[in-house]
């Protein structure tokens, strides 16, 4: 007699191989790689996964022929998955507290925001506040401890779901390396395995009326209008709001080409040359002139007359006493040219996105 179906055994074997193997690979690579080559550790993890995928078929066959205690084997495998998940989470927590995660070189932190990769942005954001980092670490440690006890395991699993979903979404949308992304998905897979064991009770609990509040005693017709109104209000506010992107066709970052000042061509030849190289046209008609270094720039507001292409820029940084730029913004044949006068000099340039 079979304790569980072959499908359930395969599902368990897959989770066992992935979760235990991934935890072993991550921790062994971090701590043992100085003595053991990482490819060897990776090979062990792959072999372990293969063995875990073969196990369900051997288990199913032996259970039929020899009558082994399949329920006991299932329990042992599940507890090993739980232990691996708990160990992984608690190590993640201590890594954060010890400063072994979210590492960004100090030199990188002083570079322009737009030059940072998605991975660096994530680490820099979380690294900014050590107390917040510790809070996340304690949450991971708490989850790990809750998983170890049968009475608190369900709470630990439910706590792990939003945490791991959030981490996985960060990994996906911020283009994190494949390693962290796959590791987060594997842990999430392990969590869903255990939640699926109690899915009926969970669904019944989630989709039952809230005991502390009563339904409004009005016809369903009015209730539906009440609910649909949630989608009507955003549309209403959308059409009456004065959105800050007043010139969406201009908003963007432009490289300055063919710069001339008083008919003399200028071009930055080294990072030390203080020459206009970049123009930013932003929301609320913000504009910035970047002089080959993010630390040296003019920031202000532009006023564009669409009828005659005249443009005036009033600066407020580094001083509101800077001479205004007055000229024309010419758009022709998918090209854009800015010509005008500022600080007693005549400027001409081509702007290219």
Which labels suit this protein?
alpha+beta, 353 residues, 9 strands
- Described by the principal axes of the CA atoms, the overall outline is elongated
Radius of gyration: 30 Å
Number of helices in the DSSP assignment: 10
- Overall residue-averaged pLDDT value: 90
Structural class: alpha+beta
- Count of beta strands: 9
What is the domain tally?
2
Q: How much strand?
A: 15-25%
Detailed description of the structure:
This protein has 2 domains: 6-206, no CATH class; 252-352, Lipocalin, CATH 2.40.128. By secondary structure, it is α+β, with helices and mostly antiparallel strands. Strands 1-3-4-5-6-7-8-9 form an 8-stranded antiparallel barrel. Strand 4 and strand 5 form a beta hairpin. It is elongated and about 95 Å long. It has 10 helices and 9 strands.
């Amino acid at each position: 007699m079979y304790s569980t179906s072959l499908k359930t055994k395969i599902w368990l074997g897959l989770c066992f191989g992935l979760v235990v193997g991934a935890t072993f690979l991550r921790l062994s690579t971090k701590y043992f790689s100085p003595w053991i080559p990482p490819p060897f550790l990776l090979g062990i993890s792959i072999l372990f996964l293969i063995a875990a995928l073969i196990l369900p078929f051997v288990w199913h066959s032996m259970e039929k022929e020899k009558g082994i205690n399949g329920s006991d084997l299932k329990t042992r495998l599940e507890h090993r998955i739980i232990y691996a998940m708990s160990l992984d989470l608690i190590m993640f927590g201590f890594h954060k507290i010890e400063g072994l995660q979210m590492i960004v070189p100090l030199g990188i932190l002083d570079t322009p925001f737009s030059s940072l990769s998605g991975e660096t942005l994530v680490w820099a954001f979380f690294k900014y506040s050590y107390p917040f980092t510790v809070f996340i670490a304690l949450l991971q440690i708490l989850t790990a401890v809750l998983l170890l006890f049968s009475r608190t395991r369900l709470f630990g699993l439910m706590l792990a779901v939003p945490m791991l979903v959030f981490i996985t979404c960060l990994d996906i949308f911020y283009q994190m390396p494949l390693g962290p992304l796959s590791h987060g998905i594997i842990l999430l897979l392990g969590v869903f395995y255990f939640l699926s064991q109690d899915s009926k009770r969970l669904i019944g609990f989630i989709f039952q009326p809230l005991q502390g509040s009563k339904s409004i005693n009005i016809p369903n017709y009015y209730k539906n209008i009440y609910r649909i109104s949630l989608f009507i209000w955003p549309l209403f506010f959308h059409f009456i709001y004065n959105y800050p992107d007043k010139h969406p066709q201009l908003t963007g970052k432009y490289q300055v080409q063919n710069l001339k000042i008083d008919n003399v061509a200028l071009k930055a030849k080294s990072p030390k040359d203080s020459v206009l190289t970049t123009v930013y046209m932003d929301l609320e008609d913000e504009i910035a002139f970047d002089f080959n270094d993010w630390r040296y720039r003019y920031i202000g507001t532009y006023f564009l007359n669409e009828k005659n292409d005249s443009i005036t820029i009033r600066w407020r940084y580094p001083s509101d006493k800077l001479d205004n730029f007055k000229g024309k913004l010419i758009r022709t044949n998918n090209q854009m040219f800015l010509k005008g006068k500022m600080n007693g000099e005549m400027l001409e340039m081509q702007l290219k996105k």
